[in-house]
What does this fold into?
Amino acid sequence: MIENKLKAAREALNISQSEASRLSGLVQKDISLLEAGKKKFIPKEYIHFLYTNGIDINSIYIDEIELKFGNTPNYPLNNNVISEVNEQVAPSLNYEKLHPKLHPTLHPTQKHTLPQVVTVDHSGNENVVLVNVKAQAGYLNGYGDVEYIQTLPTYSLPGLNNGTFRAFEVSGDSMDPTLEHKEIVICQWVENTDHIRNDRVHVIVSKKDGIIIKRLLNCISKHGYIIAKSDANNKTLYRNIEVYPQDIEEIWYPILHINHNFRSPNELHNRMNSFESDLEEIKRRLGI
It folds into this structure.
C-alpha cells in the first residue's frame, strides 16, 4: 500500500515525521495522515522532497515493486546541482552517501519537470486526472494546488499502472488529422527534456504559451529551444512555436487517445482518392 511505502521511504532516510516536515515544508499532521492512509492527495512539496532525496517515485505507487532509491541512476554526481536542488533542505543529510549518482534536476540542456500533485483511489492506485478545455486556463495556475486538482474529474483506466498519467483535451484543429478537436489524449509524465521523443506528439505545460499539444523537435542542445509544430497542412495559420526550457512546467507523452468521432470508411477512402488524383495531376503536368 502507498501509505506503507511513504513511511518506509521516510524511515529509509532515517528521519522522524517532524524532521520530514521541517525538510519538506509539509506540516507534520499531513505527513502523519499520509502514512496512516487517511490522506490520499500527496502535495507537491512532499513528492519533490522524496524525489530529491533519491526515492524512486514509481516504486512508491506500484505495489508490484519494492521501494527503492535511485530515480535515474545513470547520471553522474554534480555537487553544484545538488546545492541548487537542495538549497532549502537542511545540510544534515549526507547526500553523497544516500545517492552517489543523484539525478541533476537542472542541466544546461534540460529542465526537470516533476508532477506537482497526483491523486490516488481508495486502493492506493493513481488516478488519471482529466484537464479538459475549460479547465486548461486554470491548470496553468493550479497544477500544483491540491484543492484545484481535486476539482478535476479523475478516471481509472485499464493497463495504466506503471507510471504517472494525465489526460488532456485537444482544443482546435491544429493537429488534424492526427488529433481532432475535443479528442482526449492520455499521457505519461516525462521526467525531463532529454527524454522527449523527437518528432512525436507531446503535451507541454508552458508558463509562456499555456498547454501545448504539438509534435516536438528537441533542439535544445543545438539552438537552446524546442520546436513545437502542428500537423495541419496550413503552416501559415499554425506556425511553429519555440519553447524554451525555463518556461516548461510539465511535459507529458501521449500513449493513447480517445476520439468520440468514429470516422466512416468512406471518409478515409475519399481522402485517399483525392490524394491519388492530385498525385496523378502533378505527374501529368511534369510529364512523368
